[in-house]
Amino acid sequence: MSKDFYSILGVEKTASDDEIKKAYRKLAHKHHPDKEGGDEAKFKEINGAYQTLSDKQKRQQYDQFGQTFEGANAGGAGGFNFDFGQSNAGGSGSGFEDLFSDLFSQTGFGGSASSQEKVGSDVAVDVEITFEEMALGTEKKVELYKRVLCDKCEGTGAKDKNTKTCETCGGAGKVHKTMRSMFGAIQQVVPCEKCHGKGQIPKEKCSKCGGDGVVRDYQKVNIKIPAGIEDGQTIRATGHGEIPIGGGHAGNLFITIHIKPDQNFKRSGDDIVSKVKISFSQAALGDKIDVGTIEGVIKMKIVAGTQSGDIFKIRNKGINREDRFGRGSHLVEIQVRTPENLSRDQKRLVKKLQEAGL
Ligand SMILES: [Zn+2]
Ligand SMILES: [Zn+2]
User: Fold this and answer.
1) How many CA atoms lie within 13 A of 74 on its CB side?
2) Ligand 2 centre and the CA of 175: distance in Å?
3) Residue 65: its pLDDT value, please?
4) N or C: which end of the chain has fewer CB within 10 A?
């Protein structure tokens, strides 16, 4: 003897429709066979119980006749033919359609049951910036060729924006579609293809977009690139992707940033590193030298006795990140140049240094 439908869903006999639905939702998610750790048999059992208990008439019959009703209800061993029929159509939030839009949430459509609105494709672009732009942050205009809302019909697809009720879905914007799955045929609610889920179609098609409500066009998008972005990092610009055919939510724009390698500057975390060559005498005696930073040339003091490989730090000339307290530094790595091609006099001078043990 099979289990009681109420205990399958873990609810009381007196449970409200809402409680039953909640319990079903939870269990169906948990045991859905497409999920890792899902349990097909259990899922069928849960669906069987819910199919009966969610239907007023069937539930009444079940309460009255108990298990005997189960046999009459069975739609064959093959699986379930979920009924999206009239009994569900009126009730807000009852029935399978919203449950199944959860369970089988399709890419390309909004996740929630109330929104059958389509989501447009994402668009990806690559943008190259200089090292300076990376260090200080920048803004770039990106020109995209993508589907945008047709301005002539304002996305309705209709000439003079005159629309009529879609005959395919009767204005509901959604249709029932039978899907084969591992547990039999399932009816799924999908957005109506004819009206793209809007329930309305053009009386006469817009001459510019041919009824699509969207056209391909160039569009400039301003992208703020924050200082300190890494090479290869991607920025998402929400809602700057394509508008789907028939209208709906725009997809997103993904901008992958490439940083041009710089001849002089390298990056080390939030610091900028450059190398500066100084002469042997500058190193020995100390000096003031010019150092190129991300914000121009500045004077820097070299102390007497500086060694090759010594690093001098110039504060607040590094990467100017807004999301961090304080700014990185500019690190100057010193390379002491050994003199070459000395004249006779110069050689004599160096010889003297040698004799002095230097
Ligand atoms: Zn149009
Ligand atoms: Zn339709």
Assistant:
1) 10
2) 8
3) 65
4) N
Residue 280 to residue 338: CA distance in whole angstroms? 6
* Distance (Å) from CA 170 to ligand 1 centroid: 23
How high is the pLDDT of residue 116?
A: 57
In CATH, what number is assigned to the domain containing residue 230?
2.60.260.20
Instruction: Please give all residues whose CB falls under 5 A of ion ligand 1, grouped by chain where several chains appear.
Output: 150, 152-153, 206, 208-209
Q: For residue 160, which ligand has an atom nearest its CA?
A: 1
Kindly state the helix (H) or strand (E) to which residue 229 belongs, with its residue range.
Answer: none
CA 246 to ligand 2 centroid distance, Å? 11
225 and 130 together in one domain: yes
* Domain identity same for 220 and 350: no
Based on the domain organization, do 246 and 120 belong to the same domain?
A: yes
- Domain annotation covers residue 42: yes
Residues 247 and 274 in one domain: no
- Could you report the per-residue pLDDT of 278-334, keeping only the tens digit for each? 999 999 999 999 999 999 999 999 999 999 999 999 999 999 988 777 799 999 999
CA of 174 to the centre of ligand 1 (A): 22
- Cα of 248 vs centre of ligand 1, distance in Å, is 14
Range of the domain at 291: 266-355
Å from CA of 218 to ligand 2 middle:
30
pLDDT of residue 133 exceeding 80, the answer is yes
Query: Which listed ligand is nearest to 175 at the C-alpha?
Result: 2
Average pLDDT of the residues in 185-194: 85
At 80-110, the pLDDT tens digits run: 333 333 333 333 333 344 444 444 433 334 3
Ligand nearest to the CA of 217: 1
pLDDT score for 109: 40
For ligand 1, the distance from its centroid to the CA atom of residue 143, given in whole angstroms, is 22
User: Which ligand is closest in space to the CA of residue 200?
Assistant: 2
